[in-house]
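FAQ

Q: What does a record look like?
A: Structure on top, sequence underneath. For example:
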């Protein structure tokens, strides 16, 4: 393979010039025209990303099918397995996973990657790049996932070998991912033979995001993505590999930005940003981030094809890339498609969702067979059976004790409001006290503990569903306390915006035409005086922030930027949190994809015994009710 000469010619232009010179020489000597450098090939790439342990389908999702709003089961890994198996006859097929396989559901909470590995092996990906969430439980969690992928008992070993690629991650020798005397778990790239031609697959993980928001070992180095990618590409070129696929967990915008910085990259299959690419307006999905594939140019001015396939095993991408006999991309196409079941529901005349009659259901299946946006798929029976062995264990796991409450954690929504702790010993008069909900307060403390970056945490009262009696605390208690599928979101906002958000939460139940006391705010690392007898904008006073290192409390600075962690419902403006919602809609947030219930479970396990916070750590330091009564 030719290396770059000090001329400003693209690699393939330079190759053509050199081959032309050689050809002229051969003709002058009576020789024949040169043969092409490479066979012209067509590459097909099937891919998913960011499934986040979402192994079951997401029920009752509303799509517009044949022009009518219709509820469907969306995604599910057993359906993905069926899709990928149906592609087995596709020529020159690569199967890729662009990272964040784990964290987000009980399948990770209870099985730490084993269930994900078994389901991934039912597809058998050619390559996988670690995302930032593969490091949420340190390098050891990623090692566990890769061990599970390789285990013959999980369908790995000789049956399925998935290469883990990450060119910009360097674990220290002797640590989990680089065991002494063993084979390193991560390689910068892997090479696949496609139709007799070598194709290089280079992995890239998000360095800053992993370092700032996950929990890698301090000794693991995360290098600059573009520098590491080019080094790996150059090594592949030195081995004669001319077709390069970048398997990236950097995000859609970062993928578009890195392509022009790299020579010789042809395709980028991405993850991290959960981007749905393509036009899905006809099925009622308007969240597309761009075209599928998105076409940009690399540093040499050559075509690069970019693809990503949304999130949570809802969709898959199938990209088709054509190369000429010089190894240049001449065309790329394909489509991302949503994977759905065939149990359809539509509203009847009373507005109630009802299953379609069988004849109508079958007619709709027939119409959708030609859809470019959705694929009706029956779950793969073997994969579904594998998953069921874990689903059955989830119920048993919920009974496991995770810790103890040394005293009752009482529940109410608004201090001075109704007591939601009836029958819980120690909570008889809790609603008459200024501190408000112990349970919501402890949940906020758990969220703050889960976030490496946050200065304080916010939880809406209505998101916490039960009081916690003194005594053993089980998994089932945790998932009854926090039953939703919320994840934790980090947001940068000024002190003035923080206070405005607090005012939003209280206004939502004091001023709204349809009041919601579930909006009432509770916080960790943040405290205040609250006077609900005042007008909006004048209710919060003496707002203070706790230093995470020293524990000292200081007045909030209206101009200073802080990091808030909260659940994604509140972050997105739910329960009237308009200030946060406006920021969220600009993209000014980081979704940690940490399941909020799992974060509480981890907090309880780490502490062993939980109790009410110290009086000075409660968010409500003093409260005057709407009626002007000062609570003790």
């Amino acid at each position: 393979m030719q290396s770059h000469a000090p001329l400003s010619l693209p690699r393939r232009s330079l190759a053509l010039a050199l081959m032309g010179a050689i050809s002229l020489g051969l003709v002058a000597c009576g020789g024949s025209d040169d043969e092409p450098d490479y066979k012209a090939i067509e590459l097909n790439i099937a891919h998913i990303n960011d499934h986040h342990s979402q192994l079951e389908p997401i029920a009752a999702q509303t799509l517009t099918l044949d022009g009518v709003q219709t509820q469907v089961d969306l995604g599910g890994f057993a359906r993905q397995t069926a899709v990928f198996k149906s592609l087995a006859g596709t020529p020159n097929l690569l199967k890729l996973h662009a990272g964040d396989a784990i964290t987000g559901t009980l399948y990770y909470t209870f099985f730490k990657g084993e269930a994900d590995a078994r389901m991934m092996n039912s597809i058998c990906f050619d390559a996988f790049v670690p995302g930032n969430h593969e490091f949420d439980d340190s390098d050891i969690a990623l090692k566990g996932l890769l061990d599970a992928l390789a285990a013959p008992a999980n369908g790995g070993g000789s049956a399925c070998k998935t290469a883990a690629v990450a060119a910009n991650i360097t674990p220290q020798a002797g640590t989990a991912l680089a065991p002494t005397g063993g084979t390193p778990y991560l390689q910068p790239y892997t090479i696949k033979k496609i139709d007799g031609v070598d194709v290089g697959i280079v992995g890239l993980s998000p360095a800053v995001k992993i370092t700032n928001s996950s929990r890698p070992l301090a000794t693991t180095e995360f290098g600059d993505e573009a520098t590491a990618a080019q080094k790996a590409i150059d090594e592949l070129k030195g081995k004669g590999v001319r077709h390069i696929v970048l398997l990236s967990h950097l995000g859609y915008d970062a993928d578009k930005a890195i392509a022009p910085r790299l020579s010789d990259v042809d395709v980028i299959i991405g993850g991290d940003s959960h981007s749905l690419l393509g036009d899905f307006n006809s099925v009622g999905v308007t969240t597309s981030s761009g075209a599928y594939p998105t076409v940009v140019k690399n540093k040499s001015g050559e075509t690069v094809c970019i693809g990503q396939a949304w999130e949570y095993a809802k969709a898959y991408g199938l990209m088709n890339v054509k190369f000429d006999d010089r190894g240049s991309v001449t065309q790329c196409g394909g489509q991302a498609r949503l994977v759905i079941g065939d149990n359809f529901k539509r509203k009847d005349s009373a507005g109630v969702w009802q299953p379609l009659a069988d004849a109508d259901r079958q007619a709709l299946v027939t119409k959708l067979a030609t859809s470019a946006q959705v694929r009706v798929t029956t779950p793969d029976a073997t994969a579904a059976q594998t998953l069921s062995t874990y689903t059955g264990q989830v119920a048993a796991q919920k009974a496991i004790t995770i810790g103890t409450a040394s005293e009752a954690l009482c529940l109410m929504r608004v201090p001075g409001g109704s007591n939601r702790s009836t029958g819980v010993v120690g909570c008889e008069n809790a609603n008459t006290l200024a501190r408000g909900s112990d349970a919501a307060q402890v949940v906020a403390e758990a969220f703050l503990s889960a976030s490496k970056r946050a200065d304080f945490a916010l939880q809406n009262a209505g998101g916490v569903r039960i009081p916690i009696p003194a005594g053993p605390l089980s998994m089932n208690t945790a998932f009854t306390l926090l039953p939703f599928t919320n994840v934790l979101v980090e947001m940068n906002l000024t002190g003035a915006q923080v206070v405005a958000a607090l005012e939003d939460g209280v206004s939502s139940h004091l001023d709204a035409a349809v009041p919601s006391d579930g909006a009432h705010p509770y916080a960790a690392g943040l405290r205040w005086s609250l006077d609900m007898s005042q007008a909006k904008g004048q209710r919060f006073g003496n707002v203070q922030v706790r230093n995470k290192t020293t524990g000292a409390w200081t007045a909030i600075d209206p101009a200073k930027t802080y990091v808030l962690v909260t659940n994604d419902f509140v972050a997105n403006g739910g329960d009237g949190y308009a200030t946060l919602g406006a920021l969220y809609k600009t993209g000014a947030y980081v979704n940690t994809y940490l399941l909020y219930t799992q974060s509480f479970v981890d907090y309880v396990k780490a502490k062993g015994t939980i109790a009410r916070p110290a009086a000075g750590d409660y968010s409500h330091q003093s409260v005057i009710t709407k009626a002007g009564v000062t609570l003790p």
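Q: Is there anything notable about this one?
A: The chain has two domains: 36-394, 399-624.
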